[in-house]
Amino acid sequence: MASNTVKVALVGCGRIAGHHARSIVATDGVELAAVCDLDLGKAKAYGDEFAVPFYTDYRRMLAEHADVAVVAVITPSGMHFEHGLEMMERFGKHIILEKPTMMRPEQLASAWETADRLGLSIFPVFQNRHNKAVHRVRQALASGELGEIRIMSVRVRWCRPQRYYDMAPWRGTFSHDGGALTNQGIHHVDLLRHLGGEVDQVSATMRTLGADIEVEDTIVATLRYATKAVGVLEVTTAARPDDFEASISIVGEKGLAQIGGIAVNELQVFTPDPSACAANSEDFKGIEGHGAVYGFGHAVMYQDIAAAFHAGVPYPVSREDCLGTLKLLHAFYRSDEAEGGWVAVDSPEQSSRLGRIDEALSDLYRTPVHD
Length: 371
Hints:
By secondary structure, this protein is of the alpha/beta class.
């Protein structure tokens, strides 16, 4: 490795951590330095697989690897704020934050203030933006191939049975997880903005239909854009017996674009140029490990991080961009809390449920402080 290689440590060795590790290994200019998890077995499994030191205490890990520049925070969603701030304030590290970045907009604003004060960077993960199909449709919208957007439609029909939520105490909680929209649908919430521009108002209804959890596993919503465009959103993890679809379609004044597949990885309909469909579709099912729904975007993300360090290229997800997606996410919950009433997205108000404090649950994911 070159002497200027950016060293990355992973904190949290859950389902997505292996995908991060493989992406780091495959990317020039970054290097996996160490991994950490409170569960020794999980930490050792990734440490052995990638031939790096493994730890159960991230403070010890960072003390022993002072040359680590970036920490990927892949802990339960409700811990991102606490863990991310400690990585910056105590250890002076740049941070990568898995979706949904943080649970509340106020946390995100606070984190970025801290990063600015310390001269550090925050890298939010929205890997589906890098899918070929998404890129091609965004290009078509920018060039005018599809014309003005008339209708945006999201459909996520996935299967998460009770055993999925029973895997860990944080799953299916408002404090640390969020429901189908926050955990599984967050990328589509992001794409509503990434492709369609800013959403002005939303009206949403949430239900829990397929599991014994406190959060929603089903949401249907309508939305109004700042333009004349309108949209519909349907996200569920109550589909049975398997994952079926994760799609977003756009009715434009000049044509139709539909991105589908297991994780918005296939350009299924593109009327301006039907031949573009095959060239801009990717097969995620053959991805090594258990990464079919994660796609290839994490590798591109690490290339972006390498470019930020080595060439000063701005990371493509800005703070305003990330905050906009989090505010839109909260708007759906606020509407449900208002019994489906229309709520303005650009509002300082936040959901009363999503990201609420649960210290007892947080204690399960805190690393004990040793003298």
